[in-house]
Design a protein that fits this description.
Layout: H1 6-11, E1 24-26, E2 41-50, E3 57-64, E4 67-72, E5 79-83, E6 92-97, E7 101-106
Antiparallel strand pairs: 1-5, 2-3, 3-4, 4-5, 6-7
Length: 107
């Protein structure tokens, strides 16, 4: 479709596309981990360890009404943003943590 979007036609300016609730993005820039306008932080959990790709890497997990975001405390570039609409199920399984030994893990 060519031409301006409906929002552009109505309001005369470009609107920012909402991707935060639908997409999973790895190693996102710090700016993309900032809450967008209207996005509200529901809770923050710390420390939360990555037991999959970067085993032993601690970080902070932030839950908003649009997504889950995890960011490493060691390397700012190591992060993930998961839209809540992209999550189909959550399961708990035992894992071996470098920081805490045997623990339960949500995936």
């Amino acid at each position: 479709m060519d031409g301006p979007s409906l929002a552009e036609a109505l309001f005369g300016k470009k609107t920012e596309e909402v991707w935060q609730d639908r997409e999973v993005r790895f190693d996102v820039a710090a700016a993309q981990l900032q809450c967008r306008r209207g996005e509200e932080v529901l809770d923050t959990f710390e420390p939360v360890e990555d037991t999959k790709g970067n085993n032993g890497d601690g970080g902070r997990l932030t839950l908003t009404h649009l997504r889950l975001m995890w960011r490493s405390t060691k390397q700012a570039r190591t992060s993930i943003s998961m839209g809540l609409d992209a999550i189909s199920s959550i399961a708990v399984r035992p894992v071996s943590s470098r920081l805490r030994g045997k623990q339960g893990s949500q995936l």
